[in-house]
Each structure stands twice: as C-alpha cells, then as structure tokens.
C-alpha cells in the first residue's frame, strides 16, 4: 500500500471519440485502477450502429465486472471474456441484432505482472527502453495474409478488405482468445487502441507521443492527430504508464514463465508454445446450458419446421 505522499504505481487515461466520418461511436473504453495496477479495456463494435455500440459496451461492462471479483489471473481474465462473449452472443440472437460482435483487448496489471487478453484487431502496445512493440496480433483477413507473406505491409495497410475481422466476441458460442503475459518494469508504457488509431497513425508517431507525454495528454494528442489525418473511423485510446513496482508482492497463485524480459504467449492446455496466435479456451467447467445450448436450439428449430410441414400437408 502506498503512503499518502507516494506517487501511484500506475497512471492511466481512457478516451474514445467518434472520429470525423462517423455520426455514432461504436467503440467503448473502460478502466479500473487498483493499488497494484488495474484493468483497462478497449472494444470496437460491429454489426450496425446500434448493435455495434451495444456489443462494445457489453464487452467492457462484463470484463470489468468479472475481473473486479478477484485478483487478475489467466483463468479470471479468460472467464471475463467468456462472460462477455455469452452476453453478446445471446443479445445477437434477435433478428434485428444479427451480425453483432466486437473486438476486445484488455490489459490486466497485477504488478509486477501484466496479462493481456485479445480478440479482433484492436491492439496492445508496449513502449520499453525506447522500443515500441506490438504485443497483440490482429485477427483479420489482411493480417493473416500478411503473416503468410501474401501481402506486403503497404498492401495490407491500403487493402480494401483491411477491416474484415476473422474473430470477434459474440460471433460464436465459444470465445477464442489470445492471452499474453509479461513481467513489468518501472517506466513501461502501454497503449491499447482501436484500429481507428492504429490504422491511421504510424508506429513512430505513437511512440513519440507516448514517451513525451503523461497518459492524459497522450490520449488527447493521439485522438487529435488521428482526426487531423482524416478520422475515418471511431478512435479509442487507453494510455498507461507504470511509475513504480510495489515491493510487497507475494508470488502469484498461478505459475507462468514471466520472469524474463520478453512477452510470453500463454498456451493453456496446448503443446506447441512456439506459435504466437494460439487459440485459448476458457478453463472453467462449462454449465449444462453452455455445453448443450446449440443442440437445444437445433432441436427446437427442427421440431418447429416439422410442425409447420405437417400442418401444411393436412
């Protein structure tokens, strides 16, 4: 616990803006600071202005609520994404909400450790010792072609399908989540943002702003720059700086290989840890409803179809 005159361990700022070309904002941001860090979320909704806005807000709400229950851990963070996915998927079963979904990228700091859960093409960056590193990999059609060597970075940035997402919360009954972990150092700066920022500004600009300004000013400056460069999409930013590491840290109740300086992809239940974009399923036992939901829907649908056919043949 910090003394009354001691600076907080973490300073952060969250900001979202509709941009210059959109009349509504389908992005959502959220943060909850704690003595040992906090949880920070960016979500970019899709499926129409009403459903996209609802999806992103549901993601942020559920992730923050679940992670507030206990100390952040890999299981808890995945549980939070699972709850968010369930809420969005169920809301999307209404005919007027078909196609709703959202990206979601969450940073959970329990100093000196950081966990990042990620779905979609919003991003998390780390600025350390003058080097800006993109921690997450985009779940998009263009990004996959880029990783396969089928597109150049310039072609990917300008491709007409660059906004086609291949993974989103709420699109399927089960969440597919990338989970990344690393040990944090004093002076580390994190940036979480939607593609309304990363798709407009170069990495060099992101780095210059992050390392020269405190989080409040950095978030405002990045949004302003994205709008000056056209603001074609909603813009969301969470800027976080770690000032110090609390000294009374007990070993975490979960064992992870995070003592090195490099980020680690945590492959829960998977054998090949060399692949960066691994699919990680939530670890807690599934309820009866979660295990059999789709089968129940199918049985009800078939029963209704047979009823209609038999009724029409009378």
From TrEMBL:
InterPro entries: PP2C, PPM-type-like_dom_sf, PPM-type_phosphatase-like_dom
Region Disordered, annotated ranges: 1-30
Molecular function GO labels: protein serine/threonine phosphatase activity
Domain PPM-type phosphatase positions: 11-242
Record keywords: Hydrolase, Membrane, Transmembrane, Transmembrane helix
Record SUPFAM superfamilies: PP2C-like
Name of the top EC class for this enzyme: hydrolase
One matching Pfam family: PP2C_2
SMART domains from the UniProt entry: PP2C_SIG, PP2Cc
Bilayer-spanning residue ranges: 295-312
KW Cell membrane (keyword) present: no
EC number(s) reported in the record: 3.1.3.16
Keyword Hydrolase annotated: yes
The protein's name: Protein serine/threonine phosphatase
Phylogenetic classification of the source organism: Bacteria, Thermotogati, Deinococcota, Deinococci, Thermales
